[in-house]
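Page 37, continued from 36.
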């Protein structure tokens, strides 16, 4: 019995893909900010020294600039402001996606989220693996096989060993 692709779990899968992409882009923006800070002119680098990423984003997003940067410090400030604003926009997007994911996962599997140590992300991962029709997984062994964690024998001679079957 194949996974269906039309239920709430498919919605969770799509939202997680968008979130993963936004987190990756935000990380790239943070790395770009750090790189711009390191290569900035001395007076600007001194002003931004010692700031955490969030503090750097906050300061750089508020830079006041003219429309046309005419020298290296102005161009660097313009670039810093642009990347900082992108970071802020991506953070807002991630927060919005998190709110949708929290709501959907709580609707689909409230008992799973209520377990200690299981947050929205872990619950969503389990739901996506199982799919919209978990009845197709008839036992714990079939679920373990699907996840790639089912044991297979790797013994040699009298030594009895097992390893994980990553083949699924």
């Amino acid at each position: 019995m194949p996974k269906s692709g039309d239920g709430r779990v498919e919605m969770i899968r799509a939202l997680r893909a968008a979130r993963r992409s936004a987190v990756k882009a935000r990380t790239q923006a943070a790395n770009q900010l750090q790189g711009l800070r390191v290569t900035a002119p001395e007076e600007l680098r001194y002003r931004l020294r010692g700031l955490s990423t969030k503090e750097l984003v906050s300061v750089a997003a508020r830079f006041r600039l003219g429309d046309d940067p005419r020298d290296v410090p102005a161009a660097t400030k313009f670039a810093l402001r642009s990347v900082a604003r992108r970071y802020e926009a991506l953070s807002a997007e991630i927060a919005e996606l998190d709110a949708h994911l929290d709501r959907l996962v709580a609707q689909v599997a409230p008992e799973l989220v209520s377990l200690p140590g299981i947050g929205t992300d872990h619950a969503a991962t389990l739901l996506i693996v199982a799919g919209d029709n978990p009845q197709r997984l008839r036992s714990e062994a079939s679920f373990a096989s699907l996840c790639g964690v089912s044991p297979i024998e790797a013994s040699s001679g009298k030594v009895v060993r097992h390893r994980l079957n990553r083949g699924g």
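The first strand starts at residue 150 and ends at 153. Flag for discussion at group meeting. Helices lie at 8-39, 42-48, 53-61, 72-108, 110-113, 120-130, 140-147.
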